[in-house]
Every structure is written in C-alpha cells, then in structure tokens.
Design a protein that fits this description.
Elements lengths: L2 E2 L5 E3 L4 E5 L2 E5 L6 E3 L6 E3 L2 E8 L2 E9 L7 E9 L2 E10 L2 E10 L1 E7 L7 E9 L2 E7 L6 E7 L5 E9 L7 E11 L10
C-alpha cells in the first residue's frame, strides 16, 4: 500500500472554498468550526473540515502544512477518523496567544495535549503511524528531524480514514495549504533511539 497525493478523498464537512492543484490542497475554513467531544467543556463539536482517504491498518501518513494562525484556536493538521466518537487530530493550534503542536485523541470523549518541541510552525510536517490499536505522532520542521508528540491508544480497525484537517472555532477564514501527502506502510523506525 502506497498512495501519494489527494485523489480519491472525501470531505467530512466540505468548506465552501477549497481546491486541489497538483499535490497541493488549499482550503479556507468556515465560521466557528471544530472537532471536540464533551470533556471539560461539555459540548460536542463535529463541524470541522477534514479531507479523508482510506487506509488499511498498519500505515504511516505524512503531510506538510502551511498556514498563518491568528485567531484563538485556529488549527490545521492531520486527522485519523473511524467514526464521530473515535478520531484523532494533530497539528498546530493557536491557544492562549501562542502556537502549540497539539494532539486530541477521542475514544468516546476527547483529551488534549500540547507541546512546543520547536516554535517555527508556519510551515511544518506531520507523521502519523497507525498499527495494532496504537497511534504514534511526530512533527518536523524540515522532514528530516522528527520530534515525538504522542503515543496513544486508539480503537482497532481493519480500515481507517486519514487526511488533512482544519478548524477555526472563533472565526471564519483560516487559509491553509496542505502538500506532500502520502500514505504508505507503517514505519519500522524504533520508538526510542538506542542508548
């Protein structure tokens, strides 16, 4: 299994403005869009934008993301989707006036973690490996040096959907360019470097 580019995807909450040009997907978010389920805030939001492609269990997805995050909770990245109660989104999120690399894992209810292994986040890459009920998420500035963001448990399935995601919970108009998207066999790199 190896797929590069965006052909064959389907929208979860299609935005009114989007285009595919070669290996680049561009979109502009609609007003007050987000993905979240219950935890702490009590609400369920499932109107964020995701362009999803099929993938069998045991894959690694790569994606490059470019955007200018200016409003609270602006976010863009990569989504793993099984159903409306089981999904994972990762990427940049602007919160409390700063940009963080963020991972939200939803297994019935959402949890949220943030970190800043690097601060240059206008143009970065994500790598997600899904295998045997686990998800490993890395981020990189250059596509060569990767920082681990999360190891998470996730619902096991023979088939998933994965692809670019963007939301703007406090406004409309976040413009995002996604590129260098691929789905291939699960990475065999060790989780930890040998000491």
């Amino acid at each position: 299994m190896h797929k590069a580019g965006f052909s064959g995807g389907v929208w979860l909450n299609e935005p009114s403005r989007w285009s595919i040009d070669g290996d680049r997907l561009m979109l502009t978010t609609e007003n007050e869009t987000d993905f979240w389920r219950e935890t702490y805030y009590g609400f369920v939001h499932d109107n964020g934008h995701a362009y999803l492609l099929p993938a069998d269990d045991g894959f690694t997805a790569l994606l490059r993301i470019r955007a200018d995050y200016t409003a609270n909770f602006d976010q863009a990245g990569l989504m793993l989707y099984l159903d409306d109660s089981h999904w994972l989104k990762c990427g940049v999120e602007l919160t409390d006036g700063d940009r963080f690399l963020s991972v939200v894992v939803t297994n019935g209810r959402s949890d949220w973690s943030v970190c800043q292994p690097f601060r240059e986040l206008d143009d970065f890459r994500l790598r997600m490996t899904v295998k045997d009920g686990s998800v490993l998420v890395h981020a990189s500035r250059d596509g060569h040096t990767w920082s681990m963001l999360r190891v998470a448990s996730f619902a096991s399935s023979a088939r998933y959907q994965v692809g670019p995601m963007a939301c703007s919970p406090s406004r409309a108009g976040l413009e995002v360019a996604f590129s260098d998207f691929s789905i291939g066999p699960a990475s065999t790199e060790p989780l930890h470097a040998e000491m």
